[in-house]
Amino acid sequence: MSRAKKICIVVTSLGKGGAERSSSLLTHMLSDLGHDIHLVSIMDDIDYEFKGQLLNLGTLQSTGPKLFLKYKKFKAFKSYLKRHQFDYVIDNRTRPSVLRELVVSRWLYNPDHTIYCVRSYHLNTYFVSSKMLAKYLYKDAYKIVGVSKEIAANIEQEFEFKNVTSIYNPIESIEAVAHKNERPYILFYGRIVDDVKNISLLIEAYQQSELPEQQIDLIILGSGEDVQVLKRKVNVLNLSDNIQFVPFQVYPYDYVKGAKFTVLTSHYEGFPRSIIESLALGIPVISVDCKSGPKEIIQHESNGLLVKNYNAKALAQAMNRFMNNQELYSICKTNAKSSVERFSMSAIARHWDALLK
Q1: Is 26 helix (H, G, I), strand (E, B) or coil?
Q2: Which DSSP symbol is given to 190?
Q3: Distance CA 276, CA 168 (A)
Q4: Contacts from 236-241 at CB under 8 Å and sequence distance 24+?
Q5: What is the maximum span of the chain, computed from C-alpha positions, in angstroms?
Q6: Exposed/middle/buried for residue 332 (C-beta within 10 Å: 0-12, 13-18, 19+)
Q7: How far apart are the first and last CA of the chain?
Q8: How many whole angstroms separate alpha carbon 291 and alpha carbon 87?
Q9: What are residue 243's DSSP bridge partners?
Q10: Distance of CA 80 to the CA centre of its chain
Q11: For every one of its 357 residues, what pLDDT tens digit does the chain have, with 9 covering 90 and above?
């Protein structure tokens, strides 16, 4: 292991999301390696457990205008960084705001000691829209870490940076007792935001499949802005007896363990936790081949099925195959756990430790 470092991990929050869960696990990995970990959260939204000392900027209050509160947060953060003299700052926030990122990258941070994480293939959420300005802000950062090889390659192509690498999200050791449902079920879990997760495609494919007729339910687990819209869609399709909506669970693993398989239908991803968590629990996965992550995890017909995106018919056929071809399903289920051993906390921690030398 490298010499113990003093590290500040910066997050928007640790609430209700795969990126947030991965950030919380990062605090565990680096703390377990012996590093002195401090966590700075911009919002007062902490669902996941973390290790280290917390500075919760979301608890700061101001009776003045919002701009004054933002300044108060910047000032408190700057003072904290100055007082602790961190070896590295690891920034996990989304970063689309030009003015804010000018202040953060050039006033708050020391670029030589800053690592920027990019947790989505949709780069506009992690880089300002001006390519010229993005190059100015991040070209001299210590490292830019994409959570998949596709993300890292996309960043290099878009910005011609020489400081890009990739480190996958880790999977922790998970224990679960299978959720008991009235009927067998398949599962989606994640944020209920259709512009990202494309749950509409999942519902359409499920309707076209043989699963409703076979009395195999679909459970949609999570919270988000589109829950009511999707419930109305389910009602219009007369699937209310087959599709259940379950609110967000911090630890949804009992539902995962009880599923026949899980499904991912996103427009885009980073390195989807739902896939590696499902496989770690021995549950096969069907995923669309979106950018990025699924093709770097799923070995088609070995631990799951990878299908063309935006094709409800192909997705429905994949669901039917898993239910009707028991030999294929058994192969994928048998291989599931071993296929994600390379994403274990200890394995991914070694990559981070090497980066911090």
Answers
A1: helix
A2: S
A3: 11
A4: 237/203, 237/207, 239/203, 239/206, 239/207, 239/212
A5: 65
A6: buried
A7: 9
A8: 33
A9: 218
A10: 28
A11: 558 999 999 999 999 889 999 999 999 999 999 999 999 999 999 999 999 999 999 999 877 788 888 889 999 999 999 999 999 999 999 999 999 999 999 999 999 999 999 999 999 999 999 999 999 999 999 999 999 999 999 999 999 999 999 999 999 999 999 999 999 999 999 999 999 999 999 999 999 999 999 999 999 999 999 999 999 999 999 999 999 999 999 999 999 999 999 999 999 999 999 999 999 999 999 999 999 999 999 999 999 999 999 999 999 999 999 999 999 999 999 999 999 999 999 999 999 999 998
Nearest residue to 348 (alpha-carbon basis) of 269, 294, 276, 249:
276
Nearest to 117 by CA among 161, 153, 74, 152: 152
Residue 275 CA to residue 277 CA, distance in Å, equals 6
Burial class of 284 by CB neighbour count within 10 A (0 to 12, 13 to 18, 19+): buried
Kindly state the DSSP code that residue 70 receives in the 8-state scheme.
Answer: H
Q: What burial class does residue 347 get, using C-beta atoms within 10 Å of its C-beta: 0-12 exposed, 13-18 middle, 19+ buried?
A: middle
**d(Cα 159, Cα 147) in Å, to the nearest integer?**
17
* 3 three-state secondary structure: coil
How many residues comprise the chain? Answer: 357
Helix (H, G, I), strand (E, B) or coil at 145: strand
Q: Which residue has the tokens 């996958």?
A: 168
Identify the three-state secondary structure at position 141: coil
List 185's β-bridge partners, or say none. Answer: 217
pTM, to two decimals: 0.94
C-alpha distance from residue 42 to each of 83, 88, 140 (Å) = 18, 18, 24
